[in-house]
Structure formats: C-alpha cells, structure tokens
Amino acid sequence: MNARWRQLWQARGGSVGGKAAQLVAQTYAVTLLGLLVGITSARSLAVGERGTLALLLLAGQLFSRFGSLGFEQLLQRDGLTRFRLSTFYAAAGLGSLALLPLMWAFMQLTDLPRVLVLSTLGAAFVVAVLRMNVALLTHLERFRELFVLNLLQASLQLLLFLAVFTTHRYEAFYAAWLAAVALAGGLSLRRVQPYRRAEGSRQPLAVWKASRRYASVAFPETVIAFCLELPLVRLTLGEVSAGLYAISNTLTNIYFQVFTALSAIVIRQPLRGRGAIYLVVALMGLVMALVSAPLTALLFGAQYAGAAAFVHWMLPTTFMLGVARIEQVTSSRLVPFAWQGALVALFCVALGLTALLPPPSLVVPYIAGCYVTYSLILIGLSRWGPVRPGSPSGTRT
C-alpha cells in the first residue's frame, strides 16, 4: 500500500498541478512556523513597539526586493542559462547601494534610529542573496532542499525570538532577526554551491535589463507583501493602528503564499484551467475573512482584535494582485517597459495621496482601491497588450 501511494504521489508530482500542490503544501508548513514567530513577538511587545519592529523588518526586506526587482522571476524561469549566480549577487549588491539614500530617508520619515541604516543595508543584501538562492532551487525543482532550508530559517528565527522574549524590547527582536537572516543566508549558499560554477554573463547591468519584464508585477507585490504603506498608516492613523495593520499584513501574506507557489511553477509550465483554481483560492480568502476576528484574538491576543477590520479590506486586494501575478508571468504579451514605469509611477502617486485623506476611516479602503485598480490594469495589459516578438498572438508561454 505504501509503495502504491508513493507511485501515485510521484506521478502527480511530475505534473504542473502536482508540483504546484507540493510547493503550496511545503510553503504552508513553513508558514505555520513563521506564524508562531509573529505570535511570539506580538505576545512579548506592546502594540506600538510591535509596529516599530515591523517597520525595521520591513526596511531590510523591502529594500532587498527593490534592489533586485524581478530577479526571482528571472531565476525561476531561466535558471543560470543566461547569467552566473555571482552576477545576480553583484547586481543585487549594486541595487542595494543605489537605494542607500532612500534607506536614510525611510529612517527619517518613520523616526527610526539613523544608525540602523547600515544594518538595513547589510540585511537587504543578505536577504536578496537568500531569495535568489531559493529561486534557483525552485527552478531546479529541488523542493525537498528548499523545504529544509525554509524550515531551518523559520526554526532559527523562532528559537532566537524565544530567547529574547523576556526582554520585551523591539531592539532585541530586531537583533535576533538579523542573526537568523545571516545564518539562513549562509545555509543557502551551501545548498547552491554546486551551481555557482555555471557559466554565464558577468554583466550585472544586463541582469537588470532582463528582469524588467517582471518589474510591473514585482513592484506592487513587493509593496503589499512587505507593507510599504505601513508608514502611511502610521502617519495618518497613529502608532497603534500601524501595529494592528502589521498583524493584518501577516494574515494576508499567509494567503498570498498560494499565488507565490503557483507562479513559481507556472512561470515555466503554464497551467490550463486557471479559472477553477482562482475560484478555489477566492473561497479560501472568504473563509479567512470570516474567521479573521476570532483567529487574530486567539493567536495574537485580544489587543490585536481590531486588525480583522484591515484584513477584510486587504484580502480581496491580495487576491487581485495574486491573479495579476499569475496572468503576467504566463502571458505571451510583453508590457513595454515605458508603460510599466508609467503604471508604477501612477500607483506610487496614488498611494502617496493617502496622507492627504482627511477622514481616517477612508485610509485603508483607499489603499485597497489603489492595489485593486493597479491589478486590473495589469491583468488587462497581460491579456490584451502588445504581443512579445516571436510569440503568436493569443498564446501562452
């Protein structure tokens, strides 16, 4: 019987749907451990301090994404057929350095200690290296190694957070996060060591040029995944609301993991019949919305129950952005980079106008509306935009 089940699993794992299901299952196993990490910091820190910690973690991860925008998708699709792994690292390092003035401005805007800008720069590069190594393992379909690596990272962070639990200080949790990221980065380098000798281009700027195709989907996904609007929420609604919003972002990110896993597979092997998949994922979002209030209070404490109101607004937003991601990475239509830049610029301007909204009750609905509008435009361009040279009209690659 065990042999029969193993044969069925291997047969299913060889299909696109099976690979996606396997990756989703592994992702959620690690995500549950990551949820314990979030619960640990929420139980130890006051709501305001939890918001400050969220901003510090946001800074390192956010600038990591912006310093290597689209690199993950490029690695997931092409692996090392075009560029050496060291070239990706160099491009990410240059991207992080270029963003140093913005890191400083971020610290000023959010009133965080300026001295932490250097740790933010280091964290941004290490997180970028970790993400690229994970993307390469995904391309190679080394799902078991990927699962072990992610599990070790989440376990390290949980253990270090538990070690500083009694300090009740966000500085201690931030130091623990930095240590966990550094250790995970070192482990990931060991996992990809056999592939670092692969031949390819040594020009970092060429990586940026090749990754531009994915910029318009990677940008808003990065914003919502790492809660770029958190400083706006803190500015308009206050420190406590920022802490609640950070918790709601934890729950919506758990939901978004389904789209992350799906796109990592379908970027190379498009999956037909996506409408049914979208319906199932939408129903999952509805269930999460219904249980978000009691679940938030149970997991994070009664003081965070107000986060459920933010979850209700941001779950549909997360769904639409996930659909836009799947549609773009599987589309045969190439959105011109000038259009992508204009779309991203308009999105940033619209999001920035949040600070000018007088009624606080409109802030989160307006933010959600910005994301949904952007997603709908991107879906439209992916379906009816200009055809990529060499791709027949109406086909999927």
From TrEMBL:
Sorted UniProt keywords: Membrane, Transmembrane, Transmembrane helix
Membrane-spanning ranges: 20-41, 53-75, 87-106, 112-134, 146-166, 172-192, 276-298, 304-324, 336-357, 363-381
Domain of life of the organism encoding this protein: Bacteria
Name of the protein this chain belongs to: Uncharacterized protein
